[in-house]
Structures are given as structure tokens and as C-alpha cells.
Amino acid sequence: MGGCSGCQYKGMSTAVEETFVGVRFSEETNLTLCGTGGIRFGYGDEVIVDGEEGPVYGRVEKSPMPVFKPCQKSSALKILRGANENDQAARERQKKNEFLAKRFCRERSRELRIEMKVSKVVFPLHKGQAMFYFTADGRVDFRQLVRDLSDRFSTRVRMIQVGSRDEAALLGGIGVCGRTLCCSTWLTEFEPISIQMAKRQNLSLNPSKISGQCGRLLCCLAYEDDQYKQRSEERPSRVS
Known about the structure:
Layout: E1 20-25, E2 32-35, E3 46-51, E4 54-62, H1 70-75, E5 77-82, H2 85-111, E6 117-122, E7 130-135, H3 143-153, E8 157-161, H4 164-171, H5 195-200, H6 207-210, H7 225-234
Parallel strand pairs: 2-5, 7-8
Antiparallel strand pairs: 1-2, 1-4, 3-4, 3-5, 6-7
Helix pairs in contact: 2-3
């Protein structure tokens, strides 16, 4: 059976395979597609996945997970093994450190009078650096804060400033449509969104109805904007 037409994976199999499962990491709302390498993992199994920043602790919540597109199969993360007692203990330490570090960072930033909002803290499961995601109106001098965090938790610290849309993608949630936020599931790039897009679609210009959790205009306003542009260009002009 052929793959998707017009892409680099054309000709690859689109058959549903049982070697893919859906894994949930931490409190994320969406499931991540992971390859099992031929090993059977069932619902509720705790696993260690090879993530971008190192091993990640997760829980299988869909097994198997139907996947048809070859591009999705090729980008699936790899399950390294089932979680053992050491991994479980490391996960408990990780959760505790993330909770304490987020609270400490907020308190210390106030004491240092740093205008910033701590969005999310991610500690490594075993070894690596802790990442602190934050939002701020401008550039922030957090050198003293980094030293304090590093001393307090005995780890390397990396501060990452993100925008409001990136913050929504990090935290996840449910949109006004009732579905999981696009930015936290599949949307990887943000397009410029304008109020003209809402006007072309005859939508209400009430900010509460056309804005997302990030406070910016909804990303989905751009999904069909090209069609609305084309229709407006093809529509005959009114004769006065």
C-alpha cells in the first residue's frame, strides 16, 4: 500500500503496526507516539523513553496506537526499556525537585526583583541540566538567580525565555473548540495571525472569542485563510 503522495516517504508502508504505543509524559494532555522495537507494552506500563534531552519517564496509555503515516512512524520516539525500581525512585526525586525548584525560583526572583514569570521547570531523570522556562517583557539578568538555583539543587541550570504562545504549548490545555491545544500536540511553527483573518471569515471580533489561552489571536484563524482570500477575490464586486 503506498504512502502519502508528494512527500519524501512516498512508497513506504501505511499499514497499521502493533509496534507503536501512545505514551503520556508527566501531566501532558497529549500522547506521544513511541516505537517499542518489537516488545509488547500494555496499558499502564511505565517505560523509559529516549527523549531529546535524555531518558524520559512515561506511562503507556494507548497500546497499540494506530498510526498510518510513514512520516509519523519515522519521527516516533524510541522506548528504551520498561521502568525499574531505580527509575521509579528517580522519577519521585525528579517530581519533588521540579516542584521545589519552581517555588524556590519564584520566591528568589521576587527577592532579587527580577520581573519574570516561571512557567515550567524540568529536571533530568538521572543526569543532566535542569531547565527553567520563563516569560518576561524584556531581557532579564538572571546570573545571580542561576547561581542560587545551582547551589540549592546541586545541578547545572539552563534558563529559557519563551513567548506567550510557546508557554501555552509547554503547559497544554483545552481550547475554545473543546479539543487539546494545537500548539501542544502537532503545531510546530507559529504563523503571523492578524485581525483581518477573522474579518474575512465573518467571525465575532470579541477578543474573548478569537483569542487562545496565550492571549493571542487563535492560530486556527490561519488554517483556512487562503480559501477565504481566494473566495473574496473571485466574488464579483458590487455595482453601486
